[in-house]
Design goal:
binds guanosine-5'-diphosphate; globular; alpha/beta; nine-stranded mixed sheet
C-alpha cells in the first residue's frame, strides 16, 4: 500500500515518496516536520562550467548528481525547484542545451561546496539518432561511464507522456554502467491521484529494476524526498582528493 500526495506542503509532516517499482511498495517513510525539513534545504548554487568535451569537465572534487531526461521533461524546473532559484534555464526550444552544465551546491555557513549538479543535454525528438551517434560518445558517455565522483543519476520521465524508446534506451544504458539511478516522474500535479497511481504502475512494468519518485516542480511534491535521496547517496561516496586544477 502506498500513498501519493499531490502537494507535499502544509500537513505537518513530509512523507517520503520513493516507490519501489517492482512491488509499488513505499520503501521509505520519513516523518519530518516540514519546517525542519526545509531548513536543511536552503542552498547556495553557482554555475561553474559548460562542457562539450571531456577536457571541459571540472576537476573531480565533491560528489556529483547527474540530471538526465528528454527535452521538455521538466529537467530545468526540477533543478530550479531543488535549489530555489532560476539556476538552470528552462527552455522553450527543445534540445537547445547541448552542453553538460555544472553547478556547485553549497550549504549556507559552509566554506566549500558539498555537491555538484550536472545538467546533461536533453534528448529525444527527431534528432535522437544524431545526438546519440555524435554527442554521446564524445562527452556524455565518458561522463556517465568514467566520472569517479558521479554519485547518482536522476533520470526524469514525464508522467503525462507514455514511456518512450529514448527513455528506455537511457535507462538500459545507465543500468549497464552500474550507476545508482533514481527515476523521477515529473509534472505529477497534472494527474489525479488515481491517474498517477496507474502511471506509476505502468512505469514499474516498463522499468522493473528502477526506483521511482513522483515529483512536481509546481507544487513542490517530492522535493524533500529527492533532497534526502541526493544527500544520502552523496554521503556514500567519498569526494575525490583535492587536486591541482587543470586548464
Ligand atoms: P526541460 O526542457 O527538460 O528543462 O524542461 P523545462 O523545465 O523547461 O519545462 C518544460 C515545460 O514543462 C515548461 O513549460 C514548464 O513550465 C513545464 N513544467 C515543468 N515542470 C512542471 C511541473 O512540475 N508541473 C507542470 N504543470 N508543468 C511543469
Amino acid at each position: 500500500m502506498y500513498t501519493i500526495r499531490k502537494d507535499g506542503s502544509g500537513c505537518g509532516d513530509t512523507r517520503a515518496q520513493v516507490t519501489d517499482l517492482r512491488s509499488l511498495r513505499l520503501t521509505a517513510l520519513a516523518k519530518v516536520p516540514v519546517g525542519i525539513a526545509n531548513l536543511g534545504m536552503r542552498v547556495l548554487s553557482r554555475f561553474i562550467a559548460a562542457a562539450t568535451d571531456v577536457s571541459h569537465f571540472p576537476v573531480p572534487s565533491v560528489p556529483e548528481i547527474a540530471f538526465l531526461g528528454r527535452s521538455n521533461v521538466g529537467k530545468s524546473s526540477v533543478i530550479n525547484s531543488l535549489v530555489g532559484t532560476k539556476l538552470a534555464r528552462t527552455s522553450s526550444t527543445p534540445g537547445r542545451t547541448r552542453s553538460i552544465n555544472f553547478y556547485e551546491i553549497r550549504w549556507p555557513g559552509k566554506p566549500r561546496p558539498e555537491l555538484i549538479f550536472a545538467d546533461l543535454p536533453g534528448y529525444g525528438y527527431a534528432k535522437i539518432s544524431r545526438e546519440v551517434s555524435q554527442e554521446w560518445p564524445k562527452f556524455i558517455e565518458p561522463y556517465l561511464n568514467e566520472r569517479t565522483t558521479l554519485a547518482l543519476c536522476v533520470a526524469l520521465v514525464d508522467v503525462n507522456v507514455p514511456p518512450q524508446d529514448s527513455d528506455r534506451k537511457l535507462l538500459d544504458f545507465l543500468s549497464a554502467t552500474g550507476r545508482s539511478v533514481l527515476v523521477v516522474a515529473t509534472k505529477s500535479d497534472r494527474l489525479s491521484n488515481n491517474q498517477l497511481h496507474n502511471v506509476l504502475r505502468d512505469l514499474g512494468g516498463q522499468y522493473p529494476s528502477a526506483r521511482l519518485l513522483p515529483y512536481s516542480a509546481k507544487t513542490g511534491a517530492g522535493r524533500d524526498e529527492l533532497w534526502r535521496q541526493i544527500r544520502q547517496v552523496a554521503q556514500q561516496i567519498p569526494a575525490a582528493a583535492p587536486s591541482t586544477p587543470q586548464h
